[in-house]
Structures are given as C-alpha cells and as structure tokens.
Design goal:
This protein has 108 residues and is mainly alpha-helical. The chain contains six helices and no strands. It is 66% helix and 0% strand. The longest helix is centred in the first third of the chain and has 24 residues.
C-alpha cells in the first residue's frame, strides 16, 4: 500500500515538473501574472467577443480552404506503393511453383 502511494506521489510530481518546464519555456515577456491580468481585462471589456454570426466572405469559407490546400490526391495509388510490381512478382512465383517443387523438398 505504501509503495502504491509513493508511486502515485512520484507520478504527480513528475507531471508537475513537466508542466512547469513547459510553462517556463513559453513564458510571456511581462510574466504570467501580467498576461493573466491583461487577458481578464480584455475579456471583461469585450475586446474579445463571441459571435454566432460569421460573415462567410470574411471567414473565408470552403473556397478559401480549397485555395489553401496542397495539390494532389488524398489517397495513394497502387503504382506509388509499388504493389503492382509485388503482385506481378507473386504471380510469377505462383506460376513457377510446380517447377520449384514443394517447400522443404530436396531438389535433385
């Protein structure tokens, strides 16, 4: 029972250390206290506001998404994977199987 408690405490301590390391690596210029203070102030003064209505032209829409997409297909063809070569090789081996004999047989 003591071991399980110690392992749990150790795991929680490791998680806190990782969290602190990530926060210290991404620390804002003015510090976290100033960042939180400015964020709360902006939220209270409606500098940041929520809207349910979105102008499709301002947001971009599907046309903008299409223009930003990379050219090409979203799938891979068998030729790109080389499966046609593999299929042809397996077909050749299957056709030659009677000539080669059964697996494990000694050849004369």
């Amino acid at each position: 029972m003591t071991g399980a408690i110690l392992v749990t405490i150790l795991a929680a301590l490791c998680a806190v250390l990782v969290f602190v390391a990530v926060l210290s690596a991404n620390k804002p210029e003015g510090g976290w206290v100033a960042w939180v203070r400015e964020s709360v102030r902006a939220w209270r003064t409606d500098e940041i506001e929520w809207t349910d209505e979105v102008d499709e032209d301002d947001a971009g829409g599907l046309g903008t998404l299409y223009l930003m997409s990379e050219p090409g297909h979203a799938y891979t063809t068998p030729e790109e994977l080389g499966t046609t070569k593999l299929a042809a090789r397996l077909r050749d081996l299957r056709e030659r199987a009677p000539e080669l004999g059964e697996p494990g047989e000694a050849r004369a």
